[in-house]
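Researcher: Please translate sequence to structure tokens.
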Amino acid sequence: MKRITRQRSEETKRKISASLKGRAKSAQHKRAISVALKAYWETIPDSIDSENK
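Model: Translation complete:
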């Protein structure tokens, strides 16, 4: 399912956080992830209401 807003429940955030704990990433990988996510989030509105304004 594709996201349509940024909001997530606290339970979902907790589950995602727990699943990612302890993973090691190289500095290069971290930079690549950062660039890709910044570009991705630019295309997603904060909420459905902000699309209509």
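Researcher: Any highlights?
Model: The chain has one domain: 10-51.
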